[in-house]
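Postdoc handover notes: sequence design on the structure in folder B. Input tokens:
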């Protein structure tokens, strides 16, 4: 004899507490429904800050920032009072002017990202390279900030 059992989802009305919870959720969904399209498509509510990594070795600080799809002339890097700032603008590209956009999730517009540096750097020796969507900034430490080996004398 073979028996088969089927898994069944619980019916909300079987538990009055869940029925009230589902009713409350439905009411909230209806309340915020007019704002749903606005939050999905509005550039005003979208903010983008590029991801950055900060590395340190004996000689320098290295900052890597992800800036995919940008042109190097749209990126600005500045150093002021021990803080590195990366800013720029990702421009909207209209590759399909005759078609209608069905979904748009990539951020366009201005951004700015600043990070306080943990050590003093030589501003006149800072270099920046942009390759494959990654900006790499090398900030050589000042001589005072570099670790020093101190010899111990006996006697």
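Designed sequence:
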């Amino acid at each position: 004899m073979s028996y088969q059992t089927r898994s069944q989802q619980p019916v909300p009305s079987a538990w009055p507490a869940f029925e009230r919870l589902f009713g409350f959720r439905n009411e909230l969904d209806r309340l915020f429904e007019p704002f749903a399209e606005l939050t999905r498509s509005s550039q005003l509510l979208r903010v983008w800050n590029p991801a950055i990594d900060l590395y340190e070795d004996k000689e320098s600080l290295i900052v890597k920032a992800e800036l995919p799809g940008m042109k190097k002339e749209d990126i600005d890097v500045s150093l002021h009072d021990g803080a590195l700032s990366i800013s720029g603008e990702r421009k909207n590209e209209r590759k399909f002017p005759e078609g209608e956009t069905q979904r748009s999730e990539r951020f366009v517009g201005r951004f700015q990202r600043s990070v306080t540096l943990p050590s003093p750097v030589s501003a006149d020796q800072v270099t920046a390279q942009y390759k494959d969507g990654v900006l790499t900034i090398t900030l050589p430490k000042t001589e005072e900030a570099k670790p020093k080996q101190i010899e111990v004398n006996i006697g």
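Context for whoever picks this up: The longest strand covers residues 83-90. Don't rerun without checking with the PI first.
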